[in-house]
Amino acid sequence: MEYERLVIRNIASIEHAEIDFSSGLLAEEPLFLICGETGAGKSTILDAICLALFKKTPRMSERGGQSGEISDGNVGVGFFDARQLMRKNTAEAYVRLDFIGSDMERYTAEWSVARARRKVNGALQPEKWRLADHT
User: Which of 63, 105, 107, 119 is deepest in the core (most CB within 10 A)?
Assistant: First the structure.
């Protein structure tokens, strides 16, 4: 699999970011390092890729028997629900990953979540996920 472009909007510490893996320095190197200050969004980049591809992240998986819910208005959201990654005080969150699969075909994977009526105080809606083949 070869990543081409990653778009992140309102996920954890990242308000908006686009990473183009197919041009510039990232296209010239087969290996690169994600580095930065604490809280800069290094893990969030990996979370975004996982959300787009798998609709879940390793960071949000249940471990050690922990469970429970957090109340979000009139909706109970599980501790390990990926929707918890949406930035506070935002109405929607979105991740899009364009990539070339092992079959050399182009794909787009998208994950998103929004609040009702796209309002910050709206009830949290079910997440959406899709994988599109561009052949």
Answer: 107
